[in-house]
Amino acid sequence: MKAQVYTVNGEKSSEVELPAQFSEPIRSDLIKRAALAVRSTERQQYGTDPLAGTKQGKHTSKRRHRYGGTYGIGTSRIKRKVMWKRGSRFGFVGAFVVSAVKGRAAFPPTSERIFEERINIKEKRKAVRSAIAATAVRELVALKHKIDGIKSIPLAVEDSFENIKKTKDIISALEKLGLAKELERIQEKTIRAGKGKMRGRKYRRKLGPLIIISKTCYAEKAAGNIPGVEIVQVKHLNANLLAPGTHAGRLAVWTKSAIEILGKDRLFI
User: Is residue 124 domain-shared with residue 104, that is, in the same domain?
Assistant: First the structure.
């Protein structure tokens, strides 16, 4: 199976042979598992202070004649703190225990908790191959992206794309390749529902195309400035990039060298 290669001006240039990874059967269950495993490593650990709510209050003795005790005054044996005293009489309020105001939490979150999910390396590689194959299925890509102006899927472009230094030139090249409607789609912002609005993530933006390059180049910084567009080297591909939200069929723009490296180095096999 071959793919058409286009210039940065959107003209046909040559053809490139697609490696075996594009012929992998699409396994949505494996893709989901691998994508969730990647996302689990991005969670930040959190927890409470181990001593929170335990820095006040003391045991109140029930022994007869013990100063500061609660013998004979009909109170329970929970830890308390003294709010006032008059001679041998004390004003106690509950402290430390879970049921007390400003007491400790019953089962607080701990920073020792492990969020990372493990996945077998063969499963992970198969999931990446499956997600790569899904980028070549027009029906799957059309579910999430606007691809009316794109002539061929998968979309391959000449290596000169990697030498573009300016963001505006990247945008111009993508528009000439037929991604004008797709770039317009990812410009829309919506306000997030819930408390995330107060935590530095007020807006949500749709994800657009994934640009896959062969090596470190100027285009990495230039394309990284476009909201919704991601760029990655072919050796760093993973299931979460190829199937965001665990849904296979992301619109991918491959450079010719990236496809050749994928087959030559037998990546993810």
Answer: no
C-alpha to C-alpha distance for 227 and 205, rounded to whole angstroms: 8
**Amino acid residing at 233:** Q
Same domain, 8 and 131: yes
34 is a domain residue:
no
Distance, in Å, from the CA atom of 230 to the CA atom of 153, rounded to the nearest integer, reads: 18
Query: Band of the pLDDT at 198, cuts 50, 70, 90?
Result: very high
Domain count, the chain: 2
CA distances from 40 to 5, 131, 199 (A): 36, 19, 20
Q: Is residue 181 in some structural domain? A: yes
At 127-157, the pLDDT tens digits run 999 999 999 999 999 999 999 999 899 999 9
Domain that holds residue 150: 2-29+119-264
- The pTM (predicted TM-score) of the whole model is 0.84
The DSSP line for 40-109 is HTTPPP----TTTT-SS-BPPP-STT-TT--TTTT--SS-EEEEEEETTEEEEEE-SSTTSTT---SS--
Residues 148 and 214 in one domain: yes
The tokens of 214 are what? 């062969």
DSSP class of 176? I
Range from 67-71, 137-141, 226-230 carrying the lowest mean pLDDT: 67-71
Domain boundary among 65, 87, 114: 114
Q: Is residue 269 part of a domain?
A: no
Q: How far apart are CA 117 and CA 64, in angstroms?
A: 56
pLDDT band at 1 (very low <50, low <70, confident <90, very high): confident
